[in-house]
Amino acid sequence: MVDKKGSLWPAIRDTPVPQGAVHIWWLLQAGFVIKSPGGFTVCIDAYLTDSVKTSYGIGRGYPAPLSPEESEFDAVMATHSHDDHQDPEAIIPFAKHLKTRYIGPFNVIKLARAGGFYGDRSVLINRGEVVEVGDIKIEAVYARHMFEPEPTPDAAGYLITVGKWRIYHSGDTEYDARIVDDTENRTDVSLICINGITGNMDTKEAAFLAWRQGCQVAVPMHFGLWREDEEFNKTATLDLNEFTDTYKRLEPNGRVWIPELGKPLEMK
After folding, report:
1. Contact (CB, 8 A) for 220 and 194
2. What Rg do the C-alpha atoms of the chain give, in angstroms?
3. What single string gives the DSSP state of each residue in the chain?
4. Confidence of residue 3 (pLDDT cuts 50, 70, 90)
5. Torsion, Cα of 197, 200, 202, 205 (10° steps)
């Protein structure tokens, strides 16, 4: 639930997570917040300003659901350094929260350090490495995001463990067998990109990967941020029904959760 100012942060901050559970909030596009029973929060790929309007002339279609100025996360994470995943205008306000650490691959950490995450407040992570944030364990897994003109050879996905729950976040990636190697039978919730352009899986590839992972809940993402009339959206594969139908043909008992602002996914 959002507050009167339209912010999700008070709900994230104040909602207790029972033992054995995990709560996941969507922030539009590829942005998510994960909260543990210990009260720790990690924020992944949050785009919270209008920086892409400055860099590419594309304005956001919907207001940000929270602001970096108010949000005191234990860790901010980015899968790679593209602006809609590592928001350049959010780094400095995030850095003003002294308990917050920044986690990511090399190019992400380079920008985080430039924005004020000095010393051990910035944490470099590569494929196969693990970082702990309270009772949350974060492992970097393979991603392939090499589209021109801005390839990101150090892009990562994440496998985030909270108690018995393992949550995969794809970031931006094409389908690749190495993702299966890193995540198969290790994934309970799959947060997976479906837009099918700019070097990402389309709806059918994403559904196939979620099936290969053996997840309990498949969550399509990388949508909901831009205006629907933007030219690049016309070639994107954002048909949520197609994702759901494909996944359920592969896994008839599978569950698809379509993310909505203000309604967390509660795994118990």
Report:
1. yes
2. 17
3. ---TTS-SHHHHHH----TT-EEEEE-SBT-EEEE-TTS-EEEES---S-HHHHHHS--BSS--SS-TTT---SEEE-SS-STTTS-TTTHHHHHTSTT-EEEE-HHHHHHHHHTT--GGGEEE--TT-EEEETTEEEEEEE-----TTS--TT-EEEEEEETTEEEEE--S----HHHHHHHTTS-SEEEEE---SSS---HHHHHHHHHHHT-SEEEEESBSSB-TT-GGGGSS---HHHHHHHHHHH-TT-EE---BTTB-EEE-
4. low
5. 150
CA distance 204 to 239: 10
pTM (two decimals): 0.96
Residue whose pair of structure tokens reads 């393992």 in the numeric block: 166
pLDDT, tens digit (0-9, with 9 covering 90-100), for 11-25? 999 999 999 999 999
Count the neighbouring beta carbons within 10 Å of the beta carbon of residue 136: 23
pLDDT of residue 5: 66
pLDDT digit string, tens, across residues 166-216: 999 999 999 999 999 999 999 999 999 999 999 999 999 999 999 999 999
Alpha-carbon distance of 194 to 172, in angstroms, equals 9
